[in-house]
Amino acid sequence: xxxxxxxxxxxxxxxxxxxxxxxxxxxxxxxxxxxxxxxxxxxxxxxxxxxxxxxxxxxxxxxxxxxxxxxxxxxxxxxxxxxxxxxxxxxxxxxxxxxxxxxxxxxxxxxxxxxxxxxxxxxxxxxxxxxxxxxxxxxxxxxxxxxxxxxxxxxxxxxxxxxxxxxxxxxxxxxxxxxxxxxxxxxxxxxxxxxxxxxxxxxxxxxxxxxxxxxxxxxxxxxxxxxxxxxxxxxxxxxxxxxxxxxxxxxxxxxxxxxxxxxxxxxxxxxxxxxxxxxxxxxx
Length: 284
Prior knowledge:
six-stranded mixed β-sheet, 23% strand, Rossmann fold, four-stranded parallel β-sheet, Hypothetical Protein Tm841, Chain: A,domain 3, globular, alpha/beta
């Protein structure tokens, strides 16, 4: 049986543009970020630093945008023109963005290429890891059904926990009330935020200090990761003493597992702010 030529598509929330790979059949859609009138996009070329620097020097609320139906449709058409017969699209969780719904609508408008839109329920480097695995499998001749089933396995065997040293960005983006933020910042209460199994970003615990939040996140990952097949992911926005301390703690806890460190993509930092630190896992 002739193997189908499969393209893998994801978006810039996946951190894929900061991951090294040689897969020519792996593509990315930008989710633009905005600070005032400035637009930040084309992350494959520009990376994150320009947005990070603008965020450091601005008091304005950063915003993001989902991939539009037109943009997604254009990408489908481009992949068809490149000779792909199928595309597996791995978008940011539909609980976070409308990109998934737009991808489904765009699917109905394209002909001549089979489109599979996966309900990933994931973002950041977990989504990037899924995209890399899908690209590997496509290059080795796996069918779209086999690849999608693998995506579900990875999705259901992964999560991320984040905390922030400053709640203000979360408040500005409407994630917390001003009153709660004010009290929490005074009391130095830090939230532990989870990328839940359903794909939502939800506060699951509050602890009294940032360092205790780091310890608690590591405990939560330790309780859930597969200690034989899991990979640990560290996500950061700012390189400072907190990151170095966190990396030391994670390496001490998981000396037997692969540990990878990723910069949080602009799409997520726009909402969490530059003090965010996270740890998660993917069970392979």
